[in-house]
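Following up on my earlier message about 2-acetamido-2-deoxy-beta-D-glucopyranose. Here are the inputs again, as you asked, copied directly from the submission form:
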Amino acid sequence: MDLRLNVFLLALCCWMACASMPVEIGMLPPPREVSLTFRNDFCVTLAWRPPQNLNRSTCDLQYYITEAFGQEVGQYTRTDTHFESCLDMERGVNYTIRTQPKNCGDMTDSKDIVRGASPPKEKLVKDFECIYYTSGSMNCTWSPADQTTDLQLYYWYKNMAQPLKPCGLYLYTGGLKTGCHLHGDFLNVTNLTTEVFFLINRTHGPSTLQNKFKRTTRDNMKPFPPKLNMKKKEGGMLELSCDPPSGFDPSLDYWDYTLRYRTSKDSNWKEISPVRCTALVPYDHHFQYRVQVKAICKDICGTGASDWSQEECYGQDQASDWSFHLTLIAIPVVITICVILFLFFLKKLRVLILPQIPDPLKLFKELINSKEVSTDAGSNLMESKIWEKQKVYVPERPELCVDVWLVDQDP
Ligand SMILES: *[C@@H]1O[C@H](CO)[C@@H](O)[C@H](O)[C@H]1NC(C)=O
Ligand SMILES: *[C@@H]1O[C@H](CO)[C@@H](O)[C@H](O)[C@H]1NC(C)=O
Ligand SMILES: *[C@@H]1O[C@H](CO)[C@@H](O)[C@H](O)[C@H]1NC(C)=O
Ligand SMILES: *[C@@H]1O[C@H](CO)[C@@H](O)[C@H](O)[C@H]1NC(C)=O
Ligand SMILES: *[C@@H]1O[C@H](CO)[C@@H](O)[C@H](O)[C@H]1NC(C)=O
Ligand SMILES: *[C@@H]1O[C@H](CO)[C@@H](O)[C@H](O)[C@H]1NC(C)=O
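Thanks, got it. Here's what our run produced:
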């Protein structure tokens, strides 16, 4: 064979080898024929074919997919050639897909292929919200974007046969449909991850406008508030306790609790978060205690909390009552005034009511010094009367007798 021909063939071989080489050592080719299709009202299928020019037995591949609803981004990898997802279409969705080397020499990721579905252009309803409040029941509410009265809500969950079920019980506000009460085994508490899909459309009108939503039970927990119990304990403590929220299997350890209380003395709430729903708080019987409790979903349960329970009262307020304070001040004041008045009048009346008891010492002195006794100008009526009495007891007759004897001596 001609040497030049040999060299040419060799060079051609080398060139062909070299030409195919960049694929194997550079960037992987992206997947082909990427399509996004709606499998039903809520679920999409992203499908593609493997890239060309790759020897699959020498180059192992996988596909990296992102699913974005605005800021929320989910990441997935697949080795087969399709990806399925049931969506919340409120905000639309964007997918990116790229080829990644699993075991493929020095190859790097391919560029991204992007596919998306846009959100509805017009909104039939706003503020679509659901609360999962008891096992088997969920209420969803919304505010209509206009005065449309012919809104229809349909719902669906995975494993439910199509077609969608219409809402069985609408909730109304002022004649407009503003909510739907859902009930069924699919909302069973043992399956908190249940995803429920909603479609709202109009029964009349030219537009085929639809709004679609997805809600997960575990993200919308809102049980009824727990029932609160209060009991006075020895040692001046008040025991607070509660029963788990009704409507859910009490054996499921789903709840954390927050208790708060305030007294008639201090109107600021004091919060306590016990592990179990029981707590001891120092109790002062002078004040009334007002207590509330709420249940909060644990991680295993999801997110959400009950409202605060109604205020439960314990004890009677004795201190903050204004009349109590008033009485507290008024009683001593009144007593003091009464005592002063009493003493004042007593001094005045003593003279009339209680005559002065005669002083025996004084009487004795008067008996001795009877001659010197004379009616004292300064003495009062009482004293002079006593004095007159004394005269009765001390007669001066003997002296008169002596005088008579003196007269008898005359010649
Ligand atoms: C792929 O590579 C394997 C192993 O190197 C080889 O046996 C096979 O022939 C190649 N197939 C193609 C289509 O190139
Ligand atoms: C999808 O991508 C487009 C273009 O980048 C962007 O305008 C839109 O907001 C994205 N949508 C979502 C739901 O992320
Ligand atoms: C949910 O709706 C039903 C039906 O109107 C109603 O009886 C129930 O009280 C509602 N639940 C809550 C938590 O609002
Ligand atoms: C929940 O589902 C389980 C199994 O399907 C069933 O045994 C249980 O009775 C259901 N509970 C309620 C509250 O529906
Ligand atoms: C809970 O949901 C999962 C996924 O939706 C399902 O596979 C499972 O059978 C459900 N369990 C019960 C008890 O319903
Ligand atoms: C509204 O949606 C339901 C469920 O997909 C469908 O059966 C019904 O025909 C729709 N109504 C209109 C007016 O499009």
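One observation from looking it over: The domain at 125-219 is CATH 2.60.40.10 (Immunoglobulin-like). Hope that helps, and feel free to reply on this thread.
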